[in-house]
Amino acid sequence: MTDDLRLVDVESKHLDDVYRVRSRSFGLLSAGDREEWLSDVQGFIDDGRIVGVVDGDELVAAARIWAFQQWWGGRKVPMGGVAGVVVAPEYRGRGVGSKLMRGVLARSVEHGYPLSALYPATTVIYRHLGYEFAGGRFRYTFPAAELRSLGGKEVSVRRAGPADAKRFLELVGQLHAAARISGPLVWPEDKVAEWLGEENSFCYLAEDGFVVYGWQSGKLRVEELVAGSEATARALWSVVGSGSSISADVEAYMSPDDPAHLLVNKEADKNTVIEHWMLRLLDAPAAISARGFAPGASLEVDLELDDSELAANTGRWHLSVSGGSGSLTPSTSTGEVLRLGSRGLSALYSGTPLATMRRAGLAWGGATAGDGAIDTAFAGATSYMLDYF
Ligand SMILES: CC(C)(COP(=O)(O)OP(=O)(O)OC[C@H]1O[C@@H](n2cnc3c(N)ncnc32)[C@H](O)[C@@H]1OP(=O)(O)O)[C@@H](O)C(=O)NCCC(=O)NCCS
Predict the structure, then answer these.
(1) Contact, 370 vs 120, CB < 8 A?
(2) Is the pLDDT of residue 1 over 80?
(3) Is residue 276 in contact with ligand 1, taking CB distance under 6 Å?
(4) Which domains does the chain have, with CATH numbers?
(5) 30, 283, 373, 377: least surrounded by Cβ within 10 Å?
(6) Ligand 1 contacts CB of residue 93 (under 6 A)
């Protein structure tokens, strides 16, 4: 390792280096998967969404940034999804990963994302940079026979495919906005169409709902199911459950607050699989004004933010919430107020109660009597994602 470590935009000439570091980090890819990986990475290179660290001419670390939108309080907020964070083994534990992630933060700010999110393989590096747990990807397992008997036979359900991508997005949009959902990603229509067209995507559409499921290791697995009514939920779950003679269990990616938990007569298997993801606010005022808040909540409060990585967020702010919207504007007030670092701000944004944050050392100062009103404004259904990236 030399002193000549620099952040760079990854270019096509670095592809072999990226693959070498990647395979030493995550394992080898088959020839077919490698082709797909190369074409994916080229897309990130073309869009300036992959950064690296070079030592002289050799690339020794890389990370990419997906251009996502994410639902927060029933509104879509642009979010840079960080993935493929890799450092060559011989460079690890020397600050290279932190340098790389600082480059990722800077590049994400340049792209104008108010939020950044990632699935951490290890939390320490990301916490140092202001990320905190914000939600999970929950996978439940239900007995297929219980789903099969849910009924809903009066609902008409038809087979769907790529041509229905627009309708899928409309339905998700309406239902997520109405339920003030937080967490799921919004994919562009062409990607949704691609997904619906996959051989292992079995898609069914009703008037006010849809399901996409397929086989995974000999079991049926629901990738996504939304339903605007009880009857449609029953109908779509029972379509999946109709496979009970072959697949005794059905796995499903879904929210912990999904109505299915209240419909199915047996609780989900105790062994729910949860992959937690982390969030970071890159531009606090933009992130606050883009998300939805609890419609009945009304809040006028000053708070102090301390963001050691992104100085523009640091300072005293006035947080105002009313009519389901919020704003964060600079404040000149003095006196003792609630204080948060960037991890605390991420946790607050994702609905973590202030009492939890105070006890974890993520929030301090101010009058605890005011915590309830702040909690109420940020409260909502548990944040979740359906996709891994
Ligand atoms: C995880 C990884 C990117 C970290 O890179 P790195 O260059 O070693 O990170 P840094 O030297 O900047 O370390 C930053 C902090 O994270 C900690 N850290 C790094 N790797 C860690 C690990 N595996 N477990 C626990 N802490 C870790 C360091 O100790 C340091 O904290 P400290 O300052 O309190 O001691 C690198 O180890 C790697 O490529 N691993 C394999 C692939 C992987 O897991 N990628 C992450 C996908 S989300």
Answers:
(1) no
(2) no
(3) no
(4) 5-130 (3.40.630.30), 138-275 (3.40.630.30), 283-378 (3.30.1050.10)
(5) 30
(6) yes
